[in-house]
Design goal:
Distance between the termini of chain A: 58 Å
Structural class of chain A: mainly beta
Largest sheet of chain A: 7 strands, mixed
CATH superfamily of the domain at 2-184 in chain A: Cupredoxins -  blue copper proteins
Oligomer: homotrimer
CATH architecture of the domain at 2-184 in chain A: Sandwich
Number of helices of chain A: 6
Largest interface: A-B, 69 and 71 residues
CATH class of the domain at 2-184 in chain A: Mainly Beta
Strand content of chain A: 25-35%
CATH topology of the domain at 2-184 in chain A: Immunoglobulin-like
Chain lengths: 412, 412, 412
Amino acid sequence: MLNRRHFLSTTLLAGLTTLFTNTKAAADQSKKIFSSNSPPKPVIVSNGRKLPWEIVNGAKQFHLIAEECEQEFAPGMKVKCWGYNGSTPGPIIEATEGDRVRILLTNNLKEHTTVHWHGIFLPNGMDGVGGLTQPSIKPGETYAYEFTLRQHGTFMYHPHADEMVQMAVGMMGMFIIHPKEQVTNVDRDFAIMLHEWAIHPGTYRPDPAVMLDFNIFTMNGKVFPAIEPMVVKTGERVRLRLGNLSMDQHPMHLHGFAFKVTATDGGQIPAAGQWPQTTVPVPVGSTRDVEFIADEPGDWVFHCHKSHHTMNAMGHDIPNTLGVDQSEVSQRIQSLLPGYMAMGEDGMAEHAMHGKHMTGPENTLPMMMGDGPFGPIEMGGMFTVIKVRDQLSNYDDPGWYEHPKGTLPKKW
Amino acid sequence: MLNRRHFLSTTLLAGLTTLFTNTKAAADQSKKIFSSNSPPKPVIVSNGRKLPWEIVNGAKQFHLIAEECEQEFAPGMKVKCWGYNGSTPGPIIEATEGDRVRILLTNNLKEHTTVHWHGIFLPNGMDGVGGLTQPSIKPGETYAYEFTLRQHGTFMYHPHADEMVQMAVGMMGMFIIHPKEQVTNVDRDFAIMLHEWAIHPGTYRPDPAVMLDFNIFTMNGKVFPAIEPMVVKTGERVRLRLGNLSMDQHPMHLHGFAFKVTATDGGQIPAAGQWPQTTVPVPVGSTRDVEFIADEPGDWVFHCHKSHHTMNAMGHDIPNTLGVDQSEVSQRIQSLLPGYMAMGEDGMAEHAMHGKHMTGPENTLPMMMGDGPFGPIEMGGMFTVIKVRDQLSNYDDPGWYEHPKGTLPKKW
Amino acid sequence: MLNRRHFLSTTLLAGLTTLFTNTKAAADQSKKIFSSNSPPKPVIVSNGRKLPWEIVNGAKQFHLIAEECEQEFAPGMKVKCWGYNGSTPGPIIEATEGDRVRILLTNNLKEHTTVHWHGIFLPNGMDGVGGLTQPSIKPGETYAYEFTLRQHGTFMYHPHADEMVQMAVGMMGMFIIHPKEQVTNVDRDFAIMLHEWAIHPGTYRPDPAVMLDFNIFTMNGKVFPAIEPMVVKTGERVRLRLGNLSMDQHPMHLHGFAFKVTATDGGQIPAAGQWPQTTVPVPVGSTRDVEFIADEPGDWVFHCHKSHHTMNAMGHDIPNTLGVDQSEVSQRIQSLLPGYMAMGEDGMAEHAMHGKHMTGPENTLPMMMGDGPFGPIEMGGMFTVIKVRDQLSNYDDPGWYEHPKGTLPKKW
């Protein structure tokens, strides 16, 4: 308790309405925190923020602001989303079992909204289903939800009003409830909200009417390589908390380790029921907690295994030219569409090299964006790296892994 | 035994061929039944019916009739489906482990069919795979399947002949086998068949060639708000039996409670392997039984968490106009298409209010249809309400929940 | 050990570079092997092959060759794929926990590639992520991966370079690691790689830019009825090892039995956590091992339960004509498109009978292809048969099941 009150002192927060939006500052602050060992250990939010609180009338009072926000998915692409307090996903709400929480929702959108507390046990009136359990909250209004937390785990918040539109354009966040007493010995505890978007090339607003054909895939509102790596010391126990409010189940795959699926938003799974996996399917409308011991150093990738979900907007709806000599036709199309680059006769790897310095549609990321120590990493989208190191003085990005002699594939 | 023979006496059924089609009557009858406590407790089929039987030559004899039927998904939309005994899904077959069953299938379609008993252990010849384990059953023919039930749980029946077409247009049903002795203390036991349909706006026949882009989503052949609520007394143990023969996994989410996944169509899951969840992904070609104690009164929604699956036909393939002033263009389009309503500049919530009294394509439900105690519930499709009440004299719909003072979000 | 050295003697393999491609010979050889009982019992690869090895410098040395290959999915359809050693999926790599393995990868493609060893614990440098853990392997180059196997189970291999393209066109294979000591008493152990393809009618190259709308579905690179049946003796314990690197989860359904899900590519599931199922959803980027006792003789089908996935290319994107008299319009279209066959007014079953002798688009399989003992089996794609027999002198295809008297449905 004492530790978190230190982190977010009531003095600091008094009167705060717009809340801090500097993610760099938040990240720095969280790095400092995580050197502490006092339970409950705060969750880590790569690229994200936490919602501050202050004690008011015996409850932890949080303030969510539903509003339009311009979010940079990666340099070169800014998207007009709807979110909370200036970002999508909104800042994480973090609390402890037994807490009385009061969450104000101010609606700065131009249409009504509500907040539903996904997975959380509460009185029916606090459930946030517009029309059914409350009137929807009109533009300009503020409503207060208040309830006592009777459980712990990984939960979410999102609107239950014009839900199809509001979730598609980014209104969602995670709600972490720590147990009163720490039940596992987790050293690094990361929270990641998955999402997918239909942002037609050359546009800057997500299209909420798309049901299937998404083209941008994010972790905590960013695409690779703009997603911060997760930094871990060899031997540490790592928990990944994954949330999904998109339209597709995402099979999230980890290299180098097998994890156990330890919890859902319905609670902890008994030890004998925890499946070992390298790929956890995170169903729509669900969270999954997975845990593993990071006992092997290196740069280990963590990504959605649907291969198109590790590509950006160019990864589909292009003509198939494998095995086709198209040198002439490409030139002709380029005279009309200067940014045009056909899929290669021999594959698409050349895009990773050329894509970055060619002109594509406005505000549209190239398909493959990353650069690694050995050349282009032909990935974008829902892809990141867990950096496991034997020696770490802090959890700042340690750079690329230096492979011990004899542990790289040899040219034969 | 005695109780069910009372329910469906052989006298009543002798010679019955068309079977009762009045769902209201069936529902009333089932309400009466469930005040009885004698095991095995019959399953409850919201909006649906059960297939009667009579003892003939030592077997429980059922009679399924494969036929075209006109089904009202909700007022304003009637669909030409194929089903059994006048509806889709067909009536539930309910029996007990150890029973000898004989099921007659009369084919009143214009093409051949078979019935496969999904998940049920039986002699290979009774498996119903047209061409492989039997000749397909021609129009006008009747075949008798006969086998002894060696297991209990939640199963399904569907054709294994022209399967892609016949299932897409509605040929399916559930097959509940009770254990000889009740193994759990379930008080309310609901069976729900999920399905999805491609019914192009303005048409009235499902399109079986659609593989991905479905636009109507049903529980027991109905869309919200035409889906009957599930009524439960506070503290009762509730089982939901969910079946899916569509083309998509449906992540079914319950508000207010966490349930345990207790069984699949492969059998009971050991207690230590039962995952607690708030959202159960029901895979294609599977059933899931989930159980929870309804210990919190209120109106709790239960729905597919793919947000487009809680919308009707308008929820996709419309232009994205978020943030676009379209007042002029809308007028122009309306002069050509009188029912046209663009997605709003500021979201789609306005549709819930205006959609109902505007003219849309013929035989096509508006996207959002429900009305609640606090205004429009912006939902359609695969969405319903579980009504949990402290006081109930019967299981008729008790109306909307009255929230105790102080349990609604406050205007701030 | 001795047994397998007999199977693939080092003498036989010395200098082998192109490796054996005769699947018939491999199948015959494996049939002989499985009459042996010495652990570890080799896995069975219907329609497929295993990658030979020889001991070189203390390691089992395998040689994979990435290359274009022409693969016959079924008679009438040859596809220009990319695979390994002449096929897709590539030959299975089979080894034992504790083995030191060295795997050479020669790149005979026209663009660079790598190999990632999906699910396998190894030094980070051997992980095969192009750009991140190694430079991608250029056309003409050979690289050697070398590591010691520290686990057992069902794993996979595939490129992590231009991954979206290379996996879509077939570059993938399975990697089976046996435990040092056999942990289950499995009698028949089948390995099946699932995949899906977008091969536009009339073309012969998979389209890697398709993300959703696939039209050909394979097991070990074949479609039904070109998929070899799995032959089992009554009472034997059967394991199916299923791998999936496509873009969709496939719900694989077994008739006649319930299996338990015993392992994933993350390891063995504790007994209490093994769900009984008749349909196992195999997530993208995952493997699933399932086990059952084949205690009921017969011809039992095993298939993806998404009904379109048991159809070939004609199963979608055709007009819906259910209930429409189209005799005249069909004639008119046929005068323009000689192969045109509308979906029937009364269903599509007639296609199974007529489809085979009508002219369709070039190199495109008819939708339903199988023939059974009772007429057409209206299936194609991801569908096969497990043949369980009381008497077997070997595991050759025993023909169709002969049903005992009284075990077929009776005409009424």
